[in-house]
């Protein structure tokens, strides 16, 4: 295989997704990985920007985070996020809002107590009615992502969609 002329590379689906400046490192990340998705960029800044755009899209929902992308889909997402992320996010979430919140519910006051689990302890959400929900967070995730996942689940519990 010939040497890549790209200055930096995005690995969207691989052993360790990220931005790499050495193609040998890219090969390590995609070698033997079923469904590998990667591409070259003209600069490190461009690769980092594209990887951040893809990461922002993944943070929009657990479904996005779990979706296995193709090269075409990943490039489409990156292009849309970089062109106008606010409009693209609105478009993506609008469909969910229409289907998930189409019923009108009488307002109720509830209290949710969220506890972030660390060190192998599960995160939990305790409802004011005494119900406890165990929240599955991404294995090996750092605290900021775990807090986001816990918050997302709390919103679902509060909306009755749990």
General description of the model:
There is one protein chain. The protein is of the alpha+beta class and 162 residues long. The chain contains 5 helices and 6 strands; from the N terminus they run ββαβαααβββα. The strands form 2 sheets. It has a 3-stranded antiparallel beta sheet with strand order 2-1-3, sandwiched between helices. Strands 4-5-6 form a 3-stranded antiparallel beta sheet, with helices on one face. A hairpin with a 7-residue loop joins strand 4 and strand 5 (123-127). The longest helix is centred in the middle third of the chain and has 30 residues, at 71-100. 16% of the residues are buried.
Strand-residue proportion: 15-25%
Q: Note the quaternary state here.
A: single chain
The biggest beta sheet reads:
3 strands, antiparallel
What is the overall number of helices? 5
Unreliable stretches (pLDDT < 50, length at least 5) are 97-107
SS elements, strand count: 6
Query: What is the general shape?
Result: elongated
Cα-based radius of gyration, to the nearest Å? 19 Å
How helical, in percent, are the residues? 40-55%
Question: Helix/strand-derived class?
Answer: alpha+beta
Helix-strand sequence: EEHEHHHEEEH
Q: Average pLDDT value? A: 81
**Biggest β-sheet: strands ordered side by side in the sheet:** 2-1-3
Distance between the termini: 50 Å
SSE blueprint:
Layout: E1 8-13, E2 18-20, H1 23-30, E3 37-41, H2 44-58, H3 62-66, H4 71-100, E4 112-115, E5 123-127, E6 132-135, H5 143-158
Structure summarized in a few sentences:
This protein has 162 residues and is of the alpha+beta class. The protein is built from five helices and six strands; from the N terminus they run E-E-H-E-H-H-H-E-E-E-H. Helix content is 46%, strand content 17%.
